[in-house]
Every structure is written in C-alpha cells, then in structure tokens.
Amino acid sequence: MTEPILQAKGVTRRYGSLMAVNGIDLTLQSGEFLALLGPNGAGKTTLIEMIEGIQLPDAGSIQIMGMSWNEREKEIRRLIGVALQETRFYDRLTTEETLRMFATFYDATDRIQEILDLVRLTDKRKVYTMGLSGGQRQRLALGVALLNNPALLLLDEPTTGLDPNARRDVWAILQDLKSRGVTMILTTHYMEEAENLCERIIIMDQGRFLASGTMNELLRNQGGGDILEFSLEPQALNSPDLHSDWSDTPGFIALEKPGQGRLRIIVSDVRPALQYLMQRLGPDSWNLRELVCRRMNLDDLFTRMTGRHLDHNATEN
What we know:
Blueprint: E1 6-15, E2 18-28, E3 33-37, H1 44-51, E4 59-64, E5 67-68, H2 69-77, E6 80-83, H3 95-103, H4 112-118, H5 134-146, E7 152-156, H6 164-179, E8 184-188, H7 191-197, E9 200-205, E10 208-213, H8 215-221, E11 226-232, E12 252-259, E13 262-267, H9 270-281, E14 288-295, H10 298-306
Parallel strand pairs: 3-8, 3-9, 6-7, 7-8
Antiparallel strand pairs: 1-2, 1-4, 4-5, 9-10, 11-13, 11-14, 12-13
Helix pairs in contact: 5-6
C-alpha cells in the first residue's frame, strides 16, 4: 500500500480543563473523501486546525505524506488547500484579480481560467468580490484553495449559512473534484452533506471518534433499521397501546418515547411493522395525528449514541 496522505496518531489538544481533541487516530488514503460529522463543540475545527498546522497538538503526531509540521512546514503548505466557513476578500478586487493574487503565491497564474470554470465563476470574473453572493464567495474561497492543486483539501463547514441552492452548487463542485481523485476532509454538521459527498463518515463528539464507516456500515454496526413513528390525537392519548409492550412488533429492535404522546419503534423492515401497527391500533387508527415511516439516518445514530441531536447548540472547539 502506498504511503497515506494523512497519518495522525494519538492527537490530543486541551484548552485549560477542556479536552477538545482526545487521543485521535486517523489515516487518510489518496483519493478518499472523508466527512467529520458532529455537532458544534465536537472538536472538528480544532482537529482540522492541527492538521493544517494552525495549532500544534499537546500530544501525538500528525504527518502529511510522511512529513511533520515542525520539520517540513514549507513543503506541507504547498501540499494542502484550505477553505474555511467564512473567508474575507478585498472588496475592491474582482473575482479574477483575487484568484490571480493568490496564484502568485504558488506560481499558478496559468490555472486562473481552469479554476474559474471549475467553481462556476467564469461569468463573475469581472465582478468585485463585494458584489458576490454568499454562495459565490464560498465558491471563490474553494477556488483559492485549489490553486496549488493540493494533495489534501481541507474544508471546514464550507456550506454553513448558505441557502439550499447555494449549498447544492458547492456540492456539485465537490462531486466534480471527487471524480478527479482529489483527497478531501470535510467537517460538517449536515448529515445529508456527509452522506451525499463522502464514502467514509466519522461521527465525532466531545473530542472523540464515536464511529467510522460508510453509511451502510454505520447503520449495520449501530443496529440500523427503519423507523416507524406515530402520535395520536389528544382524545386517544390514554389508549393502552401507547403504554404497553411493543416488542412483538415484527422485526422489533428498540422502542423510544420522545414525549408528547409519540412512540418511535425501530424495526428491521418497516413494511410488516406498519401492517402490524394498523391492526393493533384497530379503531384507534382513526386517531392517528401523525405517522412517519423512514430509514434511520445519521442524526438518529448520533442520538442513539449520545442522547443528543447533531444540531444541538454549543460553541465549536
């Protein structure tokens, strides 16, 4: 096997008494798209900042293509590209002038047109950056990160704050990069972003990796299943069925009670479970206020592992 693009071993970072990153091991191979998925405060940004050399770990080691930051900083800087959640540009430079300015750092002025095409900004080349939308500025930041043709692309929450259309525009560019064999780490708290873009997903919380794998592997390893969730109208909340045992549901895995008269049944296959539900409720089926059948998603997995949702409010590490 060829040398990995990234090798991190036992990486730890503290802020006073807070353990932001706690003994992380991570290996990334060439061409791999990896998502670090977790809520604000999970330690994702701290880990990315150590990988990109902004911070140094208190313990452990990080190597980019076999090189460490304290020995080969200049060489590593030419191997990585970084796009942050928000990038500030000079207001009175055009899109093309901005790319040209950054391209001089890497002797890459011959790539300006290629980058404009790649990030879909050719028609905005003469527009001042102050006149770009949020999504267009984020695509420009991505273009800047790609100027040096990086061996490793690091994207820290690149679509946070963007509207759905702008987010999909960024996704389309990342899918294009994926087809070109770019190696990338993406931090996000959007589960659909991780699932749509990345083969391997690492769920992170409180400085640790909780689980790693493809979406199917995560579902299988964590119990997986389909979700059948329902609630009844207020007049039926005292129905014995809401308070009795549901373990005889076909394919039963687990029962959760989110509150407010709701039941969530996790099963291996929702189809026979749904038929059983309607038979069991009988006349009370007319009192169904809401009925949801769906596949378990990453937020469900995170909730099962931590008792919290991915979007809970916290301050990012």
